[in-house]
Design brief:
single chain, alpha/beta, 6-stranded parallel β-sheet, 14 helices, globular
Length: 382
């Protein structure tokens, strides 16, 4: 296992109606904020849940929500210009990963003098970032805890990684009320993607005893949230269980790494605007089958912690039961089961494999892999 190097950041607040305390918390960092808002929150009239606590505390703010195509470098560059002109004290990001990843980039580059393209091509920011407060509307926000943010390069529509300063996100507030925008299918695919992230962190070459602790708690919480409560003693609502499991999974990724399904989902989403959670869900069982060839012991443990395999099953049976359980969940939620169901062509998958192969995450996969091997895995899922 890798050596443990961990710094406690950011502060995390998780629970129902925590947004009502937003104004109280953000005053720590200033009185003028830019809100990076996922457009869907506005469509569901949830923006007021974010702005009202700020208004009550007389905190100035303005909203930027021009991120319909994802966290693209063009939109981020425009947002940075607007933020500088407004002389903000900090940034509040509300929504899914596109809003949060974009906000991370804006906060990181706010005091820099060079183009964003210099930084996604390899330069590292040297100035202090402005404080960032994140309000996720989904059960996962893995990259807000890290110093490497996936973005979409507007020049090529490729996914790129932006190296950022440490500790950009000062506060993470998870409130299940923000997840009201999600349909049952979206909740199902996001839950599976979150479980997939936890598995990837558990199986990564970068995993440690510390990241494993987060992973194992994520497996337990997500199992309750996805499969239903197994005991009358568990009275926590499903949406809160998923948020808690997502928080643990996100911390696991930050102390370990994302993996095969996630990087391919990022690459396909950047090129073809197809949901990351759908792609990751489809690839999830194939990824487990691939990694089971050399890490069956850890997959067996996932299956047992999740309550999917009991002690009567052998290791091989536990792994197979886990894989079949994932496929059953996909079918039960009426989600696409093959990549061809997403109207992707083999040529597009080949390009996506090449894009994924350029990411630094490739060095932390469960084993060394080439882009040809990534493509082979996608062919199995096609």
């Amino acid at each position: 296992m890798a050596d443990l190097i961990f710094k406690i950041s950011p502060n995390i607040v998780l629970g129902s109606y925590t947004l009502t305390r937003l104004g109280q918390y953000v005053r720590t960092w200033g009185s003028k904020f830019m809100i990076i808002l996922d457009p869907i929150l506005k469509d569901f009239n949830l923006a007021e849940k974010i702005t009202q606590p700020l208004a009550e505390r007389k905190i100035d703010f303005f909203i930027y929500d021009n991120f319909n195509d994802g966290a693209t470098t063009k939109d981020i560059e425009n947002a940075i210009i607007l933020a500088k002109q407004s002389h903000i004290h900090g940034i509040i990001a509300a929504g899914g990963e596109k809003a949060i990843n974009a906000a991370c980039a804006i906060a990181s580059l706010y005091n820099e003098n060079h183009s964003i393209y210099d930084y996604i091509d390899g330069a590292v920011p040297t100035t202090n970032p402005v404080p960032l407060i994140c309000l996720p509307s989904t059960s996962r926000a893995p990259y807000a805890f890290t110093n490497s943010i996936p973005l979409i390069d507007s020049r090529s529509h490729q996914v790129k990684q932006l190296k950022t300063q440490n500790n950009i996100c000062r506060l993470m507030m998870w409130d299940p009320n923000l997840s009201l925008t999600l349909t049952e299918n979206q909740t199902a695919s996001l839950s599976l993607e979150t479980l997939c992230l936890a598995c990837e962190a558990y199986l990564s070459q970068k995993s440690s005893f510390f990241s494993d602790m987060f992973c194992e708690k994520a497996f337990e919480l997500l199992s309750y949230g996805i499969n239903g409560k197994k005991s009358l003693d568990i009275t926590t609502p499903q949406e809160l269980l998923l948020e808690q499991g997502g928080c643990m999974a996100s911390l696991a990724v930050s102390t370990s790494s994302a993996g095969i399904a996630s990087i391919l989902a990022l690459a396909i989403n950047a090129r073809y605007k197809i949901s990351r959670s759908l792609v990751a869900s489809i690839l999830f069982p194939y990824m487990i089958e691939e990694v089971a060839k050399f890490k069956a012991d850890k997959i067996e443990k996932i299956a047992r912690i999740s309550g999917i395999a009991d002690e009567t099953l052998s290791r091989e049976e536990a792994v197979q039961t886990f894989v079949e359980n994932i496929r059953q969940k996909i079918a039960k939620a009426n989600l696409p089961v093959r990549l061809k169901d997403l109207d992707l062509s083999m040529e597009q998958l080949a390009i996506s494999a090449e894009d994924a192969g350029q990411l630094d995450i490739m060095t932390t996969l469960p084993r060394s892999m080439t882009t040809d091997e990534l493509f082979e895995l996608m062919k199995q899922a096609y």
